[in-house]
Amino acid sequence: MADPMRIRAQAAGDKATVRVLMSHEMETGQRRDSSGNVVPAWFIQEVTAAHNGKTVMTAEWGPAVSKNPFLQFSVKGAKAGDKVTITWKDNKGDSRTDEATVT
Questions:
Q1: Residue 1 lies in a domain
Q2: Model pTM greater than 0.90?
């Protein structure tokens, strides 16, 4: 399983800024290894964010996203103490879910 995501969620006024650093190799399927063999594609396809259990953002990614991707977005109506949950799924069927509390 992948390493935990690093999630920071900070409230400011009536919204919270959420920053997420995901640990994932993100192979495009176009690179070759030292033997000349194509390295198979392996990338995050879907990212979902939820605020207190309600989905607030969904993103569909492809192989062009960089290794260990960073994502930042805002959530209206979030306040200190609320929960933000981030889930990703990759093209090999692996997934990861992590949660943070808004500060």
A1: no
A2: no
